[in-house]
Amino acid sequence: MSMQIFTDSSANLFEEQVKELKLEIVSLTLSINEDEVLCYEPGAPFDFDGFYARMRQDDKLQLRTSMINADAFLKAFEPFLQAGTDILYLAMSAGLSGTWSGGQTAAEILQKKYPQRTIRVVDTISATIGQGMMVREAVAMRDAGVALEEIAAHVERRKTEIRQYFMVDDLNFLKRGGRLSSSAAMAGSIMHLKPILKGDKEGKIVLDRKLFGRKKAINTLIEIFEQEHVDKPENSSIGISHTGVEDEAHLLAAEIIDRYPKVKAEIVPFEPCTSSHVGPGALGLFFF
Q1: Ramachandran angles phi, psi of 16, nearest 5°
Q2: InterPro entries from the entry (predicted)?
Q3: Which residues of 66-82 are buried (b: 16+ CB within 10 A; e: fewer)?
Q4: Which residue, among 277, 278, 275, 257, has the nearest Cα to 266 in the 3D structure?
Q5: Are 91 and 188 within one domain?
Q6: Do 97 and 121 belong to one domain?
Q7: 234 lies in a domain?
Q8: Which residue intervals of the chain are DSSP H helices?
Q9: Domain co-membership, 18 together with 123
Q10: Domain range holding 246?
């Protein structure tokens, strides 16, 4: 049986990668002062540097992200089902967005219409490059001839092993976007501490610890990797996402690789929708 793997724009994959991995992407929408842009749009590269500058300079900048609704998923999924192709959709965390729910609703509607097809929706309880790492593993299994249900089971297991930590400069971006409670944002902002946040077991963002200074926060991310990695370092990959602090991203990767030379690192900017929530100066570390 043929299979198509879907994910959403939260997975932090870029156009060349999407083509290479033979994926289908359904995109969230970002509104910037009422102007709407897709967070993933082939042929329309996003101006990350310009966006970070606007976030830093314009206190009145209005940012809003919109989940993917069931209708969008119906339109994306159905042509493949009509062609006799099964579908596996690896969704961003349901703890962060209603996007998973939209995909699940579409799957339930289409399963009744195409009962002979397999349609699986998996909540990765992750986002950004952490979600993308699970998508890559799913693609590798697909290319090795592994069955859809076995791939879905693998992702269900791996999502319990993913570790997602990140530091931000301004918690108010997360608070305004509904990704962090007001009380957590206030606690993290006291005395200009540099908070480290994490994705919890439900895929929600919670405050992990508060530190003085970015250097201390970066060193703490390295310590967290050393303490919590599940995969053996010689087989381990890390994902590092950032909003305009690429130098620090490379520093973080170099420090980890210096201690664990066989670790493979990928560094990318946070995709547009996530960037709007974490704000400029954010740095994230994702690993198993």
Answers
A1: -60, -40
A2: DegV, DegV_C, DegV_domain_contain
A3: bbbebebbbebbbebbe
A4: 257
A5: no
A6: yes
A7: yes
A8: 15-21, 48-57, 70-82, 99-113, 128-143, 148-158, 172-176, 182-189, 214-228, 246-259, 272-278
A9: yes
A10: 163-287
**Residue length of the chain:** 288
207 in the same domain as 275: yes
User: Considering 137, 158, 179, which residue would you say is the last residue of a domain?
Assistant: 158
pLDDT digits (tens, 9 = 90+) for 84-143: 999 999 999 999 999 999 999 999 999 999 999 999 999 999 999 999 999 999 999 999
Q: For residue 9, is pLDDT > 60?
A: yes
CA–CA distance, 256 with 219 (Å, rounded to integer): 10
Confirm whether pTM is higher than 0.70: yes
CA distance 114 to 78: 9
User: Residue 25 is encoded by which pair of tokens?
Assistant: 């992407």
Which tokens is 284 given? 């994230």
Q: Are residues 182 and 135 in the same domain?
A: no
> What DSSP element (H or E) covers 204?
none
Q: Which residues of 144-154 are buried (b: 16+ CB within 10 A; e: fewer)?
A: eeeebeebbeb
86 and 175 inside one domain:
no
Output the CA angle 181-183-189, nearest 5 degrees: 105
Domain identity same for 177 and 143? no
The conformation of residue 234, written as its DSSP 8-state character, comes to G
- Kindly state whether residue 33 falls inside one of the protein's structural domains: no
Cα–Cα distance for residue pair 11/150, rounded to 1 Å? 21
Q: Is residue 52 part of a domain?
A: no
Rounded Cα gap, residues 284 and 270, in angstroms: 9
β-strand pairing of 237-242 with 264-269: parallel
12 sits in the region (left: phi over 0; alpha: psi -120 to 50; else beta) called left
Average pLDDT, the chain: 92
